[in-house]
Fold this protein.
Amino acid sequence: QVQLVESGGGLVQAGGSLRPSCVASGSIFNLNRMGWYRQAPGKQRELVASITTLGSTTYADSVKGRFTISRDSAKTVYLQMNSLKLEDTAVYYCNYVRLGPTTNYWGQGTQVTVSA
């Protein structure tokens, strides 16, 4: 069982930055992928970025060059969001997947709102 807690969302003006974080607890496997998904009103949930404990990363085309995902342990992940745009407004959800066996866990989400 894995629990995920996000923090660091908030209100920021266009062009600004935020750095939400996610902390996983419970039965954390040392080979995993953690990532951020987001869901805006009327849209499907989409992958923003992910990172494995082996160091490989994946980014959505819409955030490449602006967002950077990083981790400082097997259970803590950050999302550095720079040059924020209005279309980045969404609830951002943390995700955990054990590599090998495919078991997904989700956080409760943190709201990111970008104002003009």
